[in-house]
Amino acid sequence: MTDASAAVPARGPVTRGSVARVGLATALSALCGYAVLYLAARNLEPAGFSLFGVFWGAFGLASGAANGLLQESTREVRALRGRHLPPGETTRPMRIAAAVGVGAALAIAITAPLWSGAVFTADQWLSVALLSVGLAGFCLHATLLGMLAGVDRWTQYGSLMVTDAALRVAVAAAAFVLGWGLAGFLWATVAGSVAWLILLVMSPATRDAARLTAAGSTRTFLNGASHSVAAAGASAILIMGFPVLLKATTPELGAAGGVVILAVTLTRAPLLVPLTAMQGNLIAHFVDQRHRRLRALAVPALTITLIGMLGVLAAWLAGPWLLRSAFGPDYQAAGGLLAWFTAGAVAIALLTLTGAATVAAALHRAYAFGWVGATLAAVILLLLPLGLETRTVTALLCGPVVGIAVHLYALATADRV
Prior knowledge:
Elements: H1 16-43, H2 46-79, E1 90-91, H3 93-119, H4 124-150, H5 154-178, H6 181-190, H7 195-202, H8 204-210, E2 214-215, H9 218-238, H10 242-249, H11 254-277, H12 279-288, H13 293-327, H14 335-360, H15 364-382, H16 388-416
Antiparallel strand pairs: 1-2
């Protein structure tokens, strides 16, 4: 069996250069994501965009859960950096990811008759097929990202992100120009799920990372990954899957729902897209700072808060004009509402940060409990007898506070041990 440590550079902590490379890739990916949303909103009226938004959110929910594989593979590989594998069983994360992907795809396909009619009210079976196949590919995509982060292959990490995003926008542009309608944008949503295969073919360094082994048995890896997947799934409900949550609690979304979904997506993207993309950097940073976990949170938390407050001000002052100008007169939202949506994005961003620190400390149960608690709180708040906009703001602001408290308590307790 190949020694994993042979492929793991014994470098120092996460560098500014690595953050810059991933930051550039994140910016390009975010621009591509905005382009897909722009093309869909311009091509589909608000009611049609709400249908696309629900599928976009459903795939985001599923792929967000698969990011638990990214987190676990990053932690496992990073922990072995510069050291030899201990004696005993080993496992290959990419093989596990393939098996998990196939199992997840089958689970979606088999259970689809029970739920797909309520979630996908147009192009139902195309949506189910694309969701199944796209998720299978993304399990490998996420695990490969984790392996690359674990061995400091940040250039390849960024390339994989950009390839994913570029494939999406290319298909969306074709759908817009050729008039494929809703179905074309459904294809665009999952188009990036083959990016991992393209990078494996093109990059020898990526192939080296994909061959790495981790300590422990398959069962050990899956045990840790299961908590990460559960937490990542809960986080995905609040982040990418929020349109699905709105649909579940408000069956008749209509045009107003389309406006709310677009507004929530746009106000959170500037913070959450880069933060989600930099999970590998964050986990690697917190693994390196394992002896002062809470102190290591201070600078990134302050940075997120300051950037977020600037975003709140920008959303309040310029948000309504930007929404109308970019997406058309059918998309109307008050500046105050957009500011509140942005404040909710700040809360979720801080929860994402504390979650990265928690999973880096191998506090898998606390990580999962924090995100699940935040999601349950958000669901309860969305069921309140209030208007759609008020319920949305309340859920986005208050739900994450529950998870942040759980994560900080777990980190503080671990630091005292």
